UniProtKB/TrEMBL annotation:
Record gene name: scoA
Protein name, UniProt field: Putative succinyl-CoA:3-ketoacid coenzyme A transferase subunit A
SUPFAM superfamilies, sorted: NagB/RpiA/CoA transferase-like (SSF100950)
Single GO MF annotation: succinyl-CoA:3-oxo-acid CoA-transferase activity
A Pfam family that the UniProt record links to this protein: CoA_trans
Listed Gene3D superfamilies: Glutaconate Coenzyme A-transferase
EC number: 2.8.3.5
UniProt-listed SMART domains: CoA_trans
Keyword terms, alphabetized: Transferase
NCBIfam families: pcaI_scoA_fam (TIGR02429)
Origin species: Isoptericola dokdonensis DS-3
Region spans: Disordered: 226-245
Amino acid sequence: MTVIATDAHEALDGLLHDSMTIAVGGFGLCGNPFDLVEAVRDAGVRDLTIVSNNLGVDGQGLGLLLENDQVSRVLASYVGENRLFAQRYLDGDLEVEFVPQGTLAERLRAGGAGIPAFWTPTGVGTPVAEGKPVAEFDGRPCVQERAIIADLGLVHAHRADRYGNLVYRYTARNFNPLVAAAGRVCVVETEHLSDAPLDPDAVVTPGIYTHRLVVARARDKPIEQRTVRPVVAGPPDPAVTGGAS
């Protein structure tokens, strides 16, 4: 049964310890479980292995755990948006396993599905394949990738019901359903909590995966790089007005 907590700290109570592996949903800052990440920071646990597409940006998201020196190892697809992440990696004081994005998604999916390993041509002949078995299938070399099973999965959902069923919003879905299934324990923050059950046809993550649930605090959602067209004064754009003068 899903336990509903009053805040993120209560949701993580008794689950955190040093040297654990935490998988975290999100893509950049989109779909990040910000409240739960901040609660991990406040708990002060150390020597963490973080599995996530990337580590947010400096000062936000998973970047907070880096700044608090709580992370010793990262499995991620890229480091480009976080200067501290990149610098610590280049300085050799942070262990990083780069995982191609599709491979990372499949490793998490496999962990949630109980599949111990799979073969993929992605990464063959590159540092990604170093130390891993390589076999040929239909004349094509493939590298063996192991599933990821985390001690804890942290997830952000758009809507949830009291049974732990989850729905995500647009691209904020990203890695969240995979993380929900790959964690031995899954803790979810949701923007909206419904007393009534969600429409079964709309549910993405069934409540069987959700162990603890908390309503996320209202906050402005950060964007890594906000880019808009400059406002140019002039006559109405026919493409917008439908040709009306």
